[in-house]
Protein: histidine kinase
Organism: Streptomyces melanogenes
Amino acid sequence: MRPSGGQGALGIDPEDLPDGLVVADEKGRVICFNAAAARITAVSKRDALGVELERALPLEDLKGRRWWQLTDPYGGLAIRVGQPERNLLLPGGREVLVSARYVREHPTGPVRRVVVSLRSTEARRRTERSHAELIATVAHELRSPLTSVKGFTATLLAKWERFTDDQKRLMLETVDADANRVTRLIAELLDISRIDSGRLEVRRQPVDIAAAVGRHIQAHVASGQAPDRFLVRIQRPLPDLWADPDKIDQVLGNLLENAVRHGAGTVTIEVAPAPVRIDEHDEKGTAVTVSDEGPGIPEESMGRVFTRFWRGSKRGGTGLGLYIVKGIVEAHGGTITVGRGSGGGAEFRFILPVAAPAYLQ
């Protein structure tokens, strides 16, 4: 390998790699130090090339021990092939993720190359912060309903005979509602876990999307919303839609709940055929648009609507609903967008491909 880190047999230039790459020759001197390595370590390529690996890349473990002396790539076990990724410290205490590969001409021969990969810990730290925020948010949201359940059940057990039947019914209905809230929070947490790990399963069945919209509107009307607050437009004929009915209900429920709670005026739901772009081809799809006449979403917030913990107002909620909605739509192979509706409020539009399960194709 040339000291400048030129292109290899595959035409890949080390300068194009997203991670830091440091390569030392059989004598332990650096012969490749790409731009990402220079950025991560704050050491210039000019200062690193030709220098002993331990001097060019002085790493310590979290206990302050010199890592190259501990691992001894050139004089250690002849069967060792490298070092797994771990957190190490650069001078000044900056953390970096380091892994190493020992290249030998034959399995137990001398080391001809030491190839070191460097990665910043920032992405991992963001993930850790996100997980910590998720735990804190869910714990906070669980505390209120659980406190309520505990308080009412303890009161009923201690003073059952003192309450009238109507009072008992009211307390038990409150306990039931809070238990449902806890169940929803746990379901959200499980959905987040499956979305993040790519394990969200979609069980496709025929779905009457127009009927599903109608059920959700009836539920809102039954809970006290005025029937004339909702305007439904169905453009028929609609293509047959194969999707997971429970998850589509979850998407519709979340979008309508947001429109009712955070929007204002008439909530309009439109269902219409729409093309879906799949592998550079237009396929049949179904589009659902939910819009309101409220203040809408500020332009500067549009890009964050589908991220974790985004809240359109200070009126409670975990801020996870739209993140889950996006995960469900994308698990179906669809897309979802947000914008400003004709009435000035928020407008959410998702498009689902209508393809049947593989066993029916």
